[in-house]
Specification:
The complex is a heterodimer of chains A (116) and B (111). Chain A has 116 residues and is mainly β. Helices cover 0% and strands 53% of the residues of chain A. The termini of chain A are far apart. Classes of the chains: A mainly beta (116), B mainly beta (111).
């Protein structure tokens, strides 16, 4: 099992540019989460999907952020236009909830984004 | 508003000592409390978790103590080792889906 796959692992861009982060969840998982990690705010949930449908996007900071999940094996997080304050590590996680069970979220290795 | 408050922000412990990290929450509807461990350059990984119907859970050197009335829970690492040096996150969950993470504790275990 390859686990959650994220790309790119590192991204350096200039302010105003569009940034697209990609995630491939673990096969069979029906929940996908996007998090942002910074020193000041820790791990923040941005948005999560269930069966490819966005359930809660209240953590998305601004309209500059958008996320899609066109199918069960792929999701993107896009920032347009990017700003220096978007610099952070972005994690994708996936999970599968069984009947009456508590689900473990499996995290990818993260994408370190630097906006100059 | 931080749903889960975690302390301390950083912790230095001697090898063989006990590391203690504390978390507090407000929402009594939370029904699952996991701890995640993160090594530099890696994503967080589940370490141990507890449900609110038990007061303690132990797995090896790691123990969660849970105080439902005080709405607090803590992670104890016994016989701390240099390999335990990592960032630890507590979290609370509603219905096992959405997790609210604490701000993290950077643990350093010195030989």
């Amino acid at each position: 099992d390859a686990g959650v796959i994220q790309s790119p692992r590192h991204e350096v861009t200039e302010m105003g540019q569009e940034v697209t982060l990609r995630c491939k969840p673990i096969s069979g998982h029906d929940y996908l989460f996007w998090y942002r990690q910074t020193m000041m705010r820790g791990l923040e949930l941005l948005i999560y999907f269930n069966n490819n449908v966005p359930i809660d996007d209240s953590g998305m900071p601004e309209d500059r952020f958008s996320a899609k999940m066109p199918n069960a094996s792929f999701s993107t997080l896009k920032i347009q236009p990017s700003e220096p304050r978007d610099s952070a590590v972005y994690f994708c996680a996936s999970s599968s909830v069984g009947q009456g069970s508590y689900n473990e979220q499996f995290f990818g290795p993260g994408t370190r984004l630097t906006v100059l | 508003q931080q749903q889960v408050k975690q302390s301390p922000q950083s912790l230095i412990v001697q090898k063989g000592g006990i590391s203690i990290i504390n978390c507090a929450y407000e929402n009594t509807a939370f029904d699952y409390f996991p701890w995640y461990q993160q090594f530099p350059g890696k994503g967080p990984a589940l370490l141990i978790a507890i449900r609110p119907d038990v007061s303690e859970k132990k797995e090896g050197r790691f123990t969660i103590s849970f105080n439902k009335s005080a709405k607090q829970f803590s992670l104890h690492i016994m016989d701390s080792q240099p390999g335990d040096s990592a960032t630890y996150f507590c979290a609370a969950s509603l219905r096992g889906n959405q997790f609210y993470f604490g701000t993290g504790t950077s643990l350093t275990v010195i030989p």
